[in-house]
What we know:
single chain; alpha+beta; GMP Synthetase, Chain A, domain 3; three-stranded mixed sheet; 54% helix
Amino acid sequence: MASIRQERVAELLKRELSMIFQREANTWFGGLFITVTQVRIGPDLGLAKVYLSFMAVSDKEKALKSVEEENWRVRKALGGKVGKQLRRVPELNFYLDDSLDFVDEVQRALNS
Length: 112
């Protein structure tokens, strides 16, 4: 069960990461359309699991790899945004969120 502080920090990170991905998608990620679907943060606020969804991409694993390669740049930009609110910027681990694909498969199965 996440504490109120964890939930607030996770929501702050989600909002700021969304803005970073929206603003820098063309220069850092080759124009990928990236959506931050969820952020989970550890009890010590030192590690954040960031779940991403990619739109109109055939190879999502390759897109995730390109985001992971720019992890240092994303973390630096995040530090510029939340540096006054957090003592330290958490490490970012990116994961592929395939829940939308699962919902789409269920919808197709129900319609068949």
